[in-house]
Amino acid sequence: SQQGEEDPQALSIQEGENATMNCSYKTSINNLQWYRQNSGRGLVHLILIRSNEREKHSGRLRVTLDTSKKSSSLLITASRAADTASYFCATDEAYNTDKLIFGTGTRLQVFP
Amino acid sequence: SQTIHQWPATLVQPVGSPLSLECTVEGTSNPNLYWYRQAAGRGLQLLFYSVGIGQISSEVPQNLSASRPQDRQFILSSKKLLLSDSGFYLCACVTGTNEKLFFGSGTQLSVL
Question: Assuming Cys at both sites, which of A49, B27, B48, B100 could form a disulfide with B2, CB separation 3.0 to 4.6 Å?
């Protein structure tokens, strides 16, 4: 089963614009992670936010977490064509940190 | 840092044939190991994970099985493939206190 649902499923923007993706999950978690996948490749870790954190930054990435709403958002600022990829959130479970479940993903297309 | 070897990159198998996909990890010891499957354009489905030799947790038993005969080796198997087993299979690991998943390059399996 999948823990997370992400929206939008697909997003198309111009270079320089910001991209926002959202993730919702079902159970209590210890942390939430965001990953990026280029077509036909393995996933690459972007950022991890813990359940006691509300916001985290890494370069052009900003992640927020609202545990009361069981949701997270990923903001990519000043997007570039090279940001074109699929983005997934992944969560563990509060009572099983070994089990890592992914959301359905958002396909981001950035046009030059 | 760890490296995940996953092979083959592409595999075409007839319905009813057996399957064995192997994943090996270098550069770390006692990793948690994972098998995920991704349908075209979709999210990742957790199939199996293992926290140690011989320890397998199954999320989607169905037609597949997994084994961990050595600390850094994780094998995905099937006795008889179904059309629905087609997909992109990804092996991943988590090491030590690092909670991030590192992925292999994946195997694209087509069952015809």
Answer: B27
